[in-house]
Amino acid sequence: MSNKGTTVDDGEIAKLSEIIDWWDPTGGKKILHGLNKFSFSLAQKENASKPLANLKILDVGCGPGLLSEEYASKYPNKYDIVIASEVVEHVANVELFLNSCVDTLKPGGKIFITTANRTRLSFISHFIVIFLFEEVLRIFKKGLHDIKKFVTPDVTAMLNKNEEEINKHKMLKDVVWDPHGRCVTLHSLNHRRVPYIINGLISKPEIRKSPHPLADKKILEVGCGGGILSEGLAKVGAVVTGIDPCQELVDLAKEHSNIYPKVAENKPTYLCTTIEVHAQKYRDYYDAVIASEVIMHVANKDLFLKQCIETLKPGGKIFITAPNKTITSKIEIFMLENVFKGAAKGIHDYEKFMTPHEISRILEKNNCTVNNTHGLVFYPYVEIWQWVFFQSLWFALEATKND
Ligand SMILES: C[S@@+](CC[C@H](N)C(=O)[O-])C[C@H]1O[C@@H](n2cnc3c(N)ncnc32)[C@H](O)[C@@H]1O
C-alpha cells in the first residue's frame, strides 16, 4: 500500500482546534460523552470486569497532532484494536486513512468505526447533522461538518482489499508485456475484446471502421493491471482511465504508455485505487466500464459491480470477460496454468469464479439490462481466441445502465 499523501485536511483541523469544551459532559461534546457510555455498555456484556484488559488499543484522531499514516509506518502490526470514532468525516483521504489504520493492526485485530452516514437522500444528513445538531440544538460547533465528506458504510470495502490477490498479481510485473509469456491470453484477447467493445458502443458501421472509432468515449478499465487492454482502447481513440489496487502494475502501465506513439499521444490515466474509492468521485461519468479478467479476483462481487455501475452515465455500458464457473473451465484453467503456461501458476481460484447468470442477476438488480453474452475459447499453441456458441469455458458480457 502506498503511504504517499496525507489524510489531514488543514481546514478540518483548524475548525476542530477551536473547540475548547471537550471535557464538559454537558457542553458541545456531550454527544461524544454519550457515545462512550454506549460502547462501554456493549463491552460490559461480554466480561464482568475490565473486559479490555491487556488489549493494545489505538484511538486514531483522539485529539490534535495524531497522524494515522505516521503511526502506521512506525507501528505496523502492533495493535489488537484500532478505533476511529467520529473521525472519518474529517479526513482528507479516507482510503489512505483506513488502510493506514489497518496497517497498525495485528493479524486478527479489529477496527471499529463510528461516523455520520451519507444517506442517499443527502438532505436527511444535512437536516439532522447540520440544521438540527449545529444550528438548533447547538450540540456541534457551527460549520464543523461538511456533508460532502460523509461516507456510507460501503466505505469499509476499502478495508476489503484482498492483499493476497494483489501480491499474486504483483509477481506478474516482469512478464505482463511479454506477448507470448504468462500473459499471452490477455494480449491475444485484445483481438476479440477491443472490437467487441467498439461494436457495443458504436452503431454506425462507417465509424466502427474508422481509425479512431472510440474517439471521445470516456472509458474506465477496472483492474487494468499493466495496461494491456487500456492501451488497446487508447489506440482506437478512447479516453481511458485505468485503475488497479496493485501499485507495481500501475507504475508499469504508466511506464509502458510512453513506448508506442499511438498510445503516447493518447495516454490512459492510470491510478492506483479501488473502484469503491473511484466511484465516490466519478458518479454517472463514464460511457463504458470494463472489467476484463478481474471479477474472479474480487472479494465482494456485489459491491464491486454496484460501484462499477455507479460510475456509468445512464445509457452507458459495462463489459465483462471472465472464465465461467464450470468443471470444463476448471480443467482448462489447470491446463493453461500448468501445461501450456499461458497464465501464472496459482493465479486463479476456482471457488471465486462466477457464471454469466450470476453476474447478470447482480447487474439487473442494479438497474442494468444485459444485452448479450458470448462464449470464448482460447487455443494455446496458436495463441488465438475464438468466439464460440457455448459459454462453458470463457464468456464476454455486455449490459446497459438504464436511464
Ligand atoms: C488478470 S489481470 C487483468 C488485467 C487487465 N484487465 C487485462 O485484462 O489486461 C487482473 C487484475 O485485477 C486486479 N485486481 C485484483 N483484485 C482487484 C479488485 N478487487 N479490484 C480491482 N482490480 C483488482 C489485479 O491487480 C490485476 O491487475
Can you offer a commentary on this structure?
Helix content is 37%, strand content 20%. The mean pLDDT is 83. The chain starts with 9 loop residues before the first helix and ends with a strand. It contains 15 helices and eleven strands. The strands form two sheets. An eight-stranded mixed β-sheet has the order 6-5-4-7-8-11-9-10. A three-stranded parallel β-sheet has the order 1-2-3. Strand 1, helix 3 (68-74) and strand 2 (79-85) form a beta-alpha-beta unit. The structure holds S-adenosylmethionine (SAM). S-adenosylmethionine (SAM) binds next to helix 6 and helix 9. InterPro entries: SAM-dependent_MTases_sf, UbiG_MeTrfase.
Descriptive keywords:
single chain; 403 residues; alpha/beta; Rossmann fold; 2 domains; 8-stranded mixed sheet; 3-stranded parallel sheet; 11 strands; 37% helix; elongated; binds S-adenosylmethionine; 3-demethylubiquinol 3-O-methyltransferase; UbiG_MeTrfase
